[in-house]
Amino acid sequence: MNLSEYNRFCKSLPHTNTVVQWGEAHVWKVATKVFAIARAEDEFQVSFKCSRFSYDLLKTQKGLRPAPYLASRGMPWIQYISGESMDDAALKDYLRESHRLASQNLTKKLQRELGFID
């Protein structure tokens, strides 16, 4: 995956928006909640939210690490730095899950308005 493919994929998820901030990071949000942050200075890197179980599983895999800043503050975020142990299809699955997890942090009213809950 590269930055263009990442942006195209994140845009395809429901109720997303993006902003470029924090030194050229492409930050994707579901409504107001961040679910993915990517950079492509030298090589493509993306950080995403995940479950505690996935975080514990992924944090020691080659090409992945706890996301700088976020993980050091106790948040279960992983940073993909190379495809050594995760292919593009798996990365997309984790981005979908990150989107779902972030949507759960929206207010119940907004979740209902956006169709995430009945």
Spatial arrangement of strands, main beta sheet: 1-2-3-4-6-5
- Give the distance, in angstroms, between the N- and C-terminal Cα atoms: 34 Å
Largest sheet: 6 strands, antiparallel
The fold-level CATH name is: Aspartate Aminotransferase, domain 1
- Count of discrete structural domains: 1
Second CATH tier, the architecture: Alpha-Beta Complex
Describe this structure in words.
The chain is α+β, with helices and mostly antiparallel strands. It contains four helices and six strands. The chain has a six-stranded antiparallel beta sheet with strand order 1-2-3-4-6-5. The mean pLDDT is 95.
Outline the fold blueprint:
Layout lengths: L2 H10 L3 E6 L3 E6 L2 E7 L5 E5 L2 H7 L5 E3 L10 E4 L7 H16 L4 H7 L4
Antiparallel strand pairs: 1-2, 2-3, 3-4, 4-6, 5-6
